[in-house]
Amino acid sequence: MVTKVKNLKGLEKELVISFDSKDVEPTVDSKLLKLSKTLDLKGFRKGKVPMNVVKSKYYNQCFNESLSEHIEQNYIKVILDEKLNPAGPPKISMEETKNKDIFTFKALIEVMPNIELKNIDKIKLEKPVLKVKKEDLEKAVDKIADQYKEWKVVKRKSKKGDRVKADFVGKINGEEFENNKANDFFIEIGSNQLIPGFEEGLKGVKAGEEKVLDIVFPDDYQDKKLAAKPVTFDIKIKEVSEAKVSEINEDFIKKLGINDGKIESLYSKIEEGMKKDSETLIESYLKKNVISSLSKSQKFEVPKSLIHDEILRIEKENNPSGDVKMSFEDMEKLYQKEAENRVKAGLLLREIINKEKFSLSKENIDNWLDTISRGQGNRAEIENYYMNNEDAKKNMESVILENLAVKWVIKNASVNEKNYTFDELVELTKIHRVGGELTQTCPWKAAREAAGYADVFVGDYNHIFDEDVRKSSLEAMGISLENIIVVVDEAHNLPDRIRMTMERVITPTIARNTTMELEEYVGALNESYLQSNSVENFSY
């Protein structure tokens, strides 16, 4: 075998590999012999076909298979001998030679970059610190009171803060579109839950009135077929209600589970919850910024093949149904930068993991499983799923190792503290992607808007079994209980959940479960973000 390795542009290399055709013949003969022992041809007994007949019919097939195997074997040998680290599969092409006894092929590959972690101590990270002020606690209590508000039907014209019950039908160019109508739909004016112009257009209406609204769907509307389209809504107003917010007094505080009914005790409970929840929020924020700052601080060339694959992966994430047809060139324009950052972050995290020799221990696996299983019931079932499902296990291991790498960066970087209120911390961790750009959003708002256009809605029990939640949730989504099929899963938990729903006080169990569910939710966002910034869980 003769090999030439040629350095091309960037990380590309060309391997020219030649080997004697005589090396292939023994493999061909072996394949023909093996085939003859099992071959069943008309006119011959099975396994008794003469070799000359076998050769005449199957020589070319066996030769091509043998040649492919020898190309692969020689390619792998060169990769190992030259200590090359391919970033992806090679592009193979056969070369014509004057000597018919010699086979020559070219293998075009990209190799992984050599990464030297530098100046980690110069990476500047901001660590948010929760600073709870009295006005924050007062604001939190006001929010709680608002959640307990009651609606009273009024006969006057609507204003901001009122709730309107209406039927509506939407049309584009006079034609109805999918999911264009709703009956008995509740709209809170000023909640900014609907498309711009809709709520504003319902100011000053009274029950019994009919109104026509001409508005335009936003350019970034989730349903691309409706984005930027002008729409006309025919609306029939059925009732107008005003909110009556609960008075914050001793009786109200006791209903919240504070036995002494004192506002100071309620403040203390709220502050305790804020501090606990802030730990997860701060961790989430730090992880997000570690990924970004680490990528910016390290300079190296990123394999084009990995970026190409990541662009396709991002497109699949953003367009899972494939409804929006797009050329790769257009994808590249949209996702090139994001794909490059993802690949780069994945390579860096892998380098840290390898350099620091991070490995999985029973302790960090148990800690991760504990976090995931909070509020989800049976810890043993969850462990069984992750430990006995290869894909799930691989994902778990990848996330744990990534977390270790992120903590290492935080430990070695320059970290400055900055005070934040709890609401500010929440905003820092609310991120999603629009056109490849990180954008702050409210996950609940986004989910609620999307639910109205979904065929299947997966939600918690209280969306159905709690009357108050059902009214404020399903109706806000444009979902009518009478027009859906309800499938109840994990029904063994249903009695306890219904019992909790019927309670009108905040018990220690409810407070604990709420805390665990919030931690789990934010943790899931963290893990999702880290996974989205790695490259297929480090599998290249």
Could you describe the 3D structure shown?
With 540 residues, this protein is of the alpha+beta class. The protein folds into 3 domains: 2-110, Trigger factor ribosome-binding domain (Alpha-Beta Plaits), CATH 3.30.70.1050; 120-132 and 257-359 and 395-538, no CATH class; 150-244, Chitinase A, domain 3, CATH 3.10.50. The protein is built from 16 helices and 13 strands. It has helices spanning 25-36, 51-81, 134-147, 250-255, 263-297, 304-318, 328-355, 362-373, 379-388, 390-412, 422-428, 443-451, 462-465, 467-477, 494-502, 508-532; strands spanning 2-7, 12-20, 91-95, 102-110, 124-130, 150-154, 163-172, 175-188, 210-216, 230-244, 414-420, 432-434, 437-439. The strands form 4 sheets. Strands 6, 7, 8, 9 and 10 form a 5-stranded antiparallel sheet that branches. The protein has a 4-stranded antiparallel sheet with strand order 1-2-4-3, covered by helices on one side. A two-stranded parallel sheet has the order 5-11. Helix 1 packs across helix 2 (51-81) and helix 9 (379-388) packs across helix 10 (390-412). The model is unreliable at 432-443 and 519-540 (pLDDT under 50).
